[in-house]
Amino acid sequence: LVTSVAAVLVVLIAGIVISTIFAVGQFRARAEAMLYIQITKEADEYIRGGFFAKGPETTIREALDTASKNLEYNSKFLEEQFGPRVEALMRGALGTTYLGIGLYKEAEPHMECAHQFFRDEFGEENRGTLWIMGNLALLYQQQKRYEEAGQLYVKVLETQRRVLGEEDPGTLTAMYNLVSLYKDQERYEEAELLLVKTLEDMRRGGEAYSLMRVPIDKLASLYKDQGRYEEAGQLYVKALETARRVLGEEDPQTLTIVTAISNLGVEQYRAGAYQNALVTLTRIRRLRQTAFKQSKASDVAFIAMALHQLGRTQEAQAVLEQLRDLFEDDKQHHEQSYLQEAEQLLAGENSRIYLVWECIETERLEEARQLLGDLKPLPTQKGLEIDGGIQSVFKALAWAYCHRGKSHNRRGEYDKAIGDYETAVRGDPGYAPALNNLGWLLATCP
After folding, report:
1. Half-sphere exposure of 151 (CA within 13 A, CB side)
2. What are phi and psi of 122, to 5 degrees?
3. So where does this one cross the membrane (predicted)?
4. 282: buried, middle or exposed (CB in 10 Å: 19+, 13-18, 0-12)?
5. Sign, Cα dihedral of 169, 174, 179, 180
């Protein structure tokens, strides 16, 4: 089966190329080369889309290997009948697909052959040649052959700039690829110079143009890789100020920058930069409250945790209580993992509340309920803080039972679903989804 699929694949690619060659007729040189490389990309996408959807990776490899063998076997025939173009196109498609699934050794001969053909046939300034050259550089980069990759990336970038201009998408892609290589080599200063120059060029094109996310994200990422979180934050804040002024508060571009700043705060926290995280997340929380009249659970959770890590315990507890308030309705439950992390951190690893959350996370709901049963008579042991923690975990357990009840319901296990809904209601009598689902099942089930 795999052999037949691979054979059909090769025939299809060849058929597309051959029919196109006849169709273009008198068109040659650059126009023809552009067409060929487009076909290569389409063939590449066909291979990826078809095989990735149809089976495990071993099947993909077997199909590609068979296609490669068929290509070698038919190479002479293809060249005699159609010239070297068809083989070069198919090798480009096979090579980039091998590259895409991490089979670098298998990709190399195909890509080098395709590169040589395009370079000799159309020259190094042709888009097709540049595309193949960029993929070959990526292959070398993945193999840690950095010197060879760098030579190709630099050549592609210089050619793109000269032929297509600084602002062409292909030029920007070539620059990002070279930045990626420099990062792999820890040549941060050279990578930074490239990205800063790109941003400066964009700013000269106007404020709206300067908000292109990719170079901003890549420069911020470069700063973060070096622990330069403050500079990354300043970069995003400046972009956000421009976006709010030029595009408005609710423009998608503005919102993505808001998300980027929020993510930066989380990364700062994870890296142990608690004070920086607190500053970043507090700033973005205030912005959300001012612009959108709401807070995001993840922001509030990490603010509480950062305060706790900084020894500001009372402030941390106050923010944690605000976080709990966000979960009063069902809208924030997709972010419950942040509530759990904050609750566990502030409660401490040796607390029973910590264990209850752990049981909920691992779906040991009955064990969690037993632990809560032991805790319930002790709400005043440490005052309101424990009360809030118990109430929060009760709500989380009720949600978990309700969620499991829905799964039972979908499978037609109605008795189990009713049992879970009843447990959820006992744990949190005001939890509307559990009440509604329980009422519906009791009314409709025999």
Report:
1. 4
2. -120, -10
3. 6-25
4. middle
5. positive
pLDDT digits (tens, 9 = 90+) for 182-221: 999 999 999 999 998 888 877 776 655 555 667 788 888 8
**Which residues 6+ apart lie within 8 Å of 283 measured at CB?**
237, 261
Helices (H), 313-431: 313-326, 336-347, 352-361, 365-375, 384-410, 414-427
Bigger pLDDT: 330 vs 29: 330
Q: Which residues of 208-244 are buried (b: 16+ CB within 10 A; e: fewer)?
A: eebbbeebbbbbbbbbbeeebbebbbebbbebbebbb
Q: Which of 306, 384, 383, 374 is nearest to 346 (CA)?
A: 306
Token reading at 115 = 């590169």
> How many whole angstroms separate alpha carbon 135 and alpha carbon 85?
18
**CA dihedral sign, ordered 160, 93, 27, 119:** positive
Token pair of 261 as six digits = 């700043």
In angstroms, how far is CA 189 from the centroid of its own chain? 26
CA angle in degrees (0–180, nearest 5) for 311-315-321: 125
Measured CA to CA, the distance from residue 155 to residue 157 in angstroms comes to: 6
Q: Are 60 and 51 contacting, i.e. CB atoms less than 8 angstroms apart?
A: yes
**Mean pLDDT, the chain, whole residue set:** 80
Alpha-carbon distance 260 to 289, whole Å? 17
Indicate the burial class of 329 (C-beta count within 10 angstroms; 0-12, 13-18, 19 or more): exposed
Per-residue pLDDT tens digits for 32-59: 444 444 444 544 444 444 434 444 444 6
Structure tokens at 34: 């552009």
* Residue pair 379/387 in contact by the 8 Å Cβ criterion: yes
Question: What is the Cα–Cα distance from 148 to 185, expressed in whole angstroms?
Answer: 13
Range(s) within the chain of domains with CATH label 1.25.40.10? 1-185, 188-271
CB-based contact 3:66 (threshold 8 Å): yes
CATH number at 188-271: 1.25.40.10
Look up residue 79 and give its two tokens.
Answer: 């060249």
The DSSP-derived string for 9-71 is HHHHHHHHHHHHHHHHTT--HHHHHHHHHHHHHHHHHHHHHHHHHHS-HHHHHHHHHHHHHHH
CB 352 within 8 A of CB 371: yes
Residues 326 and 282: their CA atoms lie apart, in Å, by 16
Quick one: CA dihedral 169, 171, 175, 181, positive or negative? positive
CATH placement of domain 1-185: 1.25.40.10
* The architecture CATH gives domain 348-446: Alpha Horseshoe (1.25)
